[in-house]
Amino acid sequence: MVILQNKGQKVSIEQGELLSYQVDGYELMHQIGSPGWGHTDTEMFPIIGPTDKAGFRVHVPRGNAIQDQHGLLRELSYTMEKKEDTTVSFVKEYAAGTVVLNSKFPDRSTAQRLIWPYSFKFKKTFSLTENSLKINFNVSGEKDMPFMIGYHPAFKLRTSKAQIKTSSASYSLEEIMKAGNRAVEVPQKEELFLEDERVIRIQTKGFGHFMLWSPVENMICVEPITFYPYAVDQAFLHEGFIYLGDSNAKFQIEIGLIP
């Protein structure tokens, strides 16, 4: 367990997963074991969305990759790279063509093995500022590697009247729950507010969009994404790829409690 603290804020992280973010004792994150999702956060990489109706095949320039929902990154383990008082970083590395066993098989998937034809390094860094938590993602690897990236944090809710607000729209918890597993798309936004008992500001860089998902009233996932996967049929999921250039690709989410 890694603990970061700064000016009344406390973050708990285990094996790269954010388990808790408290501000003066007020918990922002959904807790493992509470009704709803069985995690607090995870990453979606190198694809976002389901692949079962496409035979778990995703078209890439090097042929067909075999990916289950939201990609194979979550099947890899983080290694802690560096820790300081208010910052800690973790990395996952993958060598092109390495077969990865799918933890969803056989109970929740018929795809036993996953594979990706590109090598990459994925770095996740937590940093506590004086009044927020920043989570940075750094993707490096082979030039022209196609990928999507999404971050999947779950926030704790205390009322059934919770809603998400942007500069131009609002989304009720009821509306989000009715959308089911397709989630609600929030296009072309890099900032929104989760209004519940308290107000949380969520700002991003690099992602460009959000999607919102919740199966229960006590939590909500506010997910920055580079592509909304339900915009296309699963066989055309590759239309949502971006491509790695000469430099690393960088993405950020900043979470802060409004005073």
Distance between the termini: 28 Å
Largest sheet: 9 strands, antiparallel
Q: How many strand elements?
A: 25
Kindly identify the CATH topology.
Beta-galactosidase, Chain A, domain 5
CATH class: Mainly Beta
CATH-defined architecture: Distorted Sandwich
Portion of residues in beta strands equals: 35-45%
Supply Rg.
Answer: 18 Å
- The strand line-up of the biggest sheet is 8-9-12-13-25-21-20-17-18
Are there runs of 5+ residues with pLDDT below 50, and where? none
* Overall structural domain count: 1
- What's the rounded overall pLDDT mean? 97
Rough outline: globular
SSE topology string: EEEEEEEEEEEEEEEEEEHEEEEEEE
* Broad structural category: mainly beta
Helix percentage: under 10%
- The number of helical runs is 1
Features:
259 residues; mainly beta; Beta-galactosidase, Chain A, domain 5; four-stranded antiparallel sheet; globular
Description:
This protein has 259 residues and is mostly beta strands. The protein is globular and about 50 Å long. The chain has a nine-stranded antiparallel β-sheet. It has a four-stranded antiparallel β-sheet with strand order 1-2-3-4, with no helix packed on it. It has a four-stranded antiparallel β-sheet with strand order 16-23-22-19. The mean pLDDT is 97. The chain has a single domain (2-257), classed as Beta-galactosidase, Chain A, domain 5, CATH 2.70.98.10. 37% of the residues are buried. The longest helix is centred in the last third of the chain and has 6 residues, at 173-178. The protein contains one helix and 25 strands. Strand 3 (17-23) and strand 4 (26-27) form a beta hairpin.
